[in-house]
């Protein structure tokens, strides 16, 4: 049992099971934030690359398609970073960084298993630019939450 107090007056008493439940809730929210953010990223990237651009390939796509993919695909990271940051609103940038780690892991997996046809520099830059979009989205949420909190406090 832990007593939380201020000025020697007890404010709340928590037990270890309450602390454990609260930690599990925080982890659960983090997992949900990452799953939802990644789902948004995968859905938007598929929409852009497969539906609008009819499949993007380093070797088979025209220069215009590669340029459009290079602009639009990183933009898909912005809403996904926003979703992860809004769900994990206590630490939006941390959730954005965790989502970036997932993007990095996916990029590494795709390169290592030869599921992409571009050279290493091309695929690494593609993954990094999507990660930058994710961080931008999480940063936007971070700034919005800070401004919202400042307005509430007066």
Highlighted features:
2 strands; 4 helices; mainly alpha; 154 residues; elongated; two-stranded antiparallel ribbon
Number of helices: 4
The ordered string of helix (H) and strand (E) elements is: EEHHHH
Largest beta sheet: strand ordering: 1-2
Main pleated sheet = 2 strands, antiparallel
Integer-rounded radius of gyration: 20 Å
Approximate strand percentage:
5-15%
Shape: elongated
Helix content: over 70%
Give a verbal description of the structure:
- Helices cover 76% and strands 7% of the residues.
- The protein is mainly alpha-helical.
- The mean pLDDT is 90.
SSE map:
Blueprint: E1 2-6, E2 9-14, H1 16-52, H2 63-87, H3 92-112, H4 120-153
Antiparallel strand pairs: 1-2
